[in-house]
Amino acid sequence: MMVAMTGSPRRAWRIGVVDDHEQIVRGMRATLDEQTDMDLVVGAGTVADLLAVTDDLDLVLLDLRLDDGTSPITNIETLQQAEIPTLVYTSGDDVYLVRQAASAGVLGVVRKNSPVSELLDAMRQALAGDTVPGIDWAAAIDSDAGFVELSPQLRRVLELYAAGEPTSRVATELDISAETVTDYVNRIRRRYSSVGRPAPTKTDLYKRAIEDGWLPIPRRFRR
Question: Has keyword Cytoplasm (predicted)?
Fold first, then answer.
């Protein structure tokens, strides 16, 4: 007698959401409760809180602006270290932050005002390992001409100096000379000037660092 062998049904995809607005997490839970192939395992206000619960996730939906002050790059890199693919789920009102996410290796960008069907399609594409094309994604890539790429050392100098640290403190923090810090700052200024985004003052550098996602957006300017 032949007995047909059937494989075990595949478990639902395990989804995480990082957003500091509870209504977004609740809405996502309600949406995924109606899906048989996806399960919202954890929703958290920060990446750290999410990973404290579990890193056994197939995909994370990540908001780019969080109240803990973490930068999109830091959050994306942290999720990558945990080997969790990321799909940006955002209002999409800051092209530089979206561009940062695109360059950091997320699979795509979905606006929060997108139809549910579009969101679910994007999630399934990302779960299949595919990038998710879209207007925001294209705009982010096309904005490369105005974006200033910085080495890790220049980025760290900009983060410290633009945040208000004096040259001497930046030098001490990075274990380099004050002259080297000044040279790096001038180099950063030249790069911004070359793409039509001059930053002649420290305040201008602070603005550029926020625009490019190197520094967190001040709380009073967040949505």
Answer: no
